[in-house]
Specification:
By secondary structure, the protein is largely without helices or strands. Helices cover 8% and strands 4% of the residues. The strands form 3 sheets. Strands 1-5-4 form a 3-stranded mixed beta sheet, with no helix packed on it. Strands 2-3 form a two-stranded parallel sheet. A two-stranded antiparallel sheet has the order 6-7. Strand 6 and strand 7 form a beta hairpin.
């Protein structure tokens, strides 16, 4: 019996992936038809096998391809928008510059895949395997060669994965630099030793994510939730953590000195109350006396600021978690990316305030005033409050006035919205999963793309149009 070829695990010749043979369109369609029957359990079906074939720039949008085998295939520039790909095998597959938006890629095998420059916006990648992987093939001469692109790690560099859900995915050792993870969900993901340098993690959810020894240099974490995240040995040089939420995070084994962090109160150069008094003088004298308050990027957690007047103040990226802000005046204030987690804002005045991507989770906004305000100098008659993409998980908004508020992309999951007034509000793509909406008013609100909203609100809207 001939001796099996020996494999040197440290040195393989590389195979040029561009030598893959194109699959005729007719054969591709035949396989997809049989595969659809296979997935549905119908007779005569067969699993699609596209391994080591060239499917570049093919349109596979909205096709049923659960469990299909794309091992080592080339799908560069392919279109898979809305495709069902649950459990599909993309081991060492070339997915560069492909469009895979709103696709179901749950439990896919993406080890060693090249996803560079791809668009996975809104796709589900729950429990995917994106670890490093080496694909071996026979060269026809009894030798094993490895099929790689530039590196063995799964390469997501330059990809767009906005709002994609990677919950419980395995991404350790992946190469993901300069990737856009805006509003992505990376809950309980393994990212040990992954290269996330220069990534945009704005608004992403990283609860329970293991980032041990990961390269996070230059990454942006504005508004990101890092609850219970593991950062032991992570490289945070130049990482912008202003506006990020750290809950139950152990940083004792992490060098935070080179990261960009919120400013301390001492950096203001004057006592907090004195600055607020000067700001009040600035307001009352139309900027003739006093100084405009600038608390941007300042850590003001657990402060007693009840009843203060901070209208028009600059508080972008400020940390106000667990602060008492009840009955405070924030009219026209800049609060974008502010951390207001568990803050007390009962009966506060937020008319015309800008709270884009602010974290208001667990905050108390009972009876808050956040309707529009008339602005004499503006080109429009009124100025709405802005809560676009704000996080309002389990927030108490009972009886709040949010008329005409801009809430596109806001997350109201498990929020108390009893008797809230959202008439004429912009609620496009807002999330209402498990929210308490008893007595809520949504008349004439823009409900396009909302999730978790009971059907009765859409019926009421239709009735109003009749």
């Amino acid at each position: 019996m001939a001796e099996a070829p020996k494999v040197d695990e440290t040195e393989f010749p590389d195979e040029n992936v561009s030598n893959l043979k194109p699959l005729p369109v007719a054969e591709m369609e035949r396989q997809i038809r049989l595969h659809e029957r296979f997935v549905k359990g119908q007779t005569g079906g067969a699993r699609a096998n596209f391994s080591f074939r060239d499917l570049s720039r093919r349109d596979l949008s909205k096709r049923l391809l659960d469990g299909a085998d794309f091992t080592g295939a080339r799908l560069q520039g392919a279109r898979l928008q809305g495709a069902r790909l649950k459990g599909a095998i993309f081991f060492a597959t070339d997915l560069r510059d492909s469009a895979i938006t709103s696709a179901d890629m749950t439990q896919c095998d993406l080890r060693g895949a090249c996803i560079r420059g791809a668009d996975l916006t809104g796709s589900a990648l729950h429990e995917c395997d994106l670890r490093a992987g080496v694909l071996l093939r026979s060269d026809g001469r009894g030798n094993l060669v490895k099929t790689v692109f530039d590196k063995e790690e799964t390469d997501m560099s330059g990809a767009t994965v906005k709002k994609a859900d990677f919950s419980r995915a395995r991404m350790s050792n992946s190469f993901i630099m300069q990737t856009d993870f805006t509003d992505a969900i990376l809950r309980d993901v393994k990212l040990i030793k992954a290269d996330l340098s220069g990534c945009n993690m704005t608004g992403s959810i990283l609860e329970g994510t293991d980032l041990s020894e990961a390269n996070l240099s230059g990454a942006i974490f504005h508004g990101a939730i890092l609850k219970r995240a593991i950062l032991a040995g992570a490289n945070l040089e130049g990482a912008d953590l202003v506006g990020a939420v750290f809950d139950s995070v152990d940083t004792s084994k992490t060098d935070m000195t080179k990261a960009q962090l919120p400013r301390s109160l001492d950096s203001l150069g004057a006592p907090l109350r004195k600055i607020i008094q000067n700001h009040l003088s600035w307001i009352n004298t139309s900027a003739q006396v006093g100084t405009h308050a600038d608390f941007s990027r300042v850590d003001m957690a657990r402060q007693n600021l009840a009843d203060v007047n901070l209208s028009a103040a600059n508080m972008q990226y400020a940390v106000l978690r667990e602060s008492d802000l009840s009955k405070a005046n924030f009219v026209m204030a800049e609060l974008a990316f502010a951390d207001l987690n568990a803050a007390d804002l009962r009966h506060a005045d937020l008319r015309g305030a800008r709270l884009q991507r602010a974290n208001l989770s667990h905050a108390n906004l009972t009876g808050v005033r956040a309707g529009p305000i008339d602005v004499a100098f503006a080109s429009t008659q009124s100025w709405p409050a802005n809560f676009e993409h704000a996080k309002l998980f389990e927030t108490n908004l009972a009886g709040a006035d949010l008329r005409r508020a801009r809430c596109a992309g806001a997350n109201f999951t498990k929020a108390n919205l009893q008797d809230v007034d959202l008439r004429h509000a912009d609620l496009r793509d807002a999330i209402f999963n498990h929210a308490d909406l008893r007595g809520a008013q949504l008349d004439h609100a823009d409900l396009r793309g909302t999730k978790g909203l009971p059907e009765r609100f859409f019926r009421d809207d239709e009735d109003d149009d009749l």
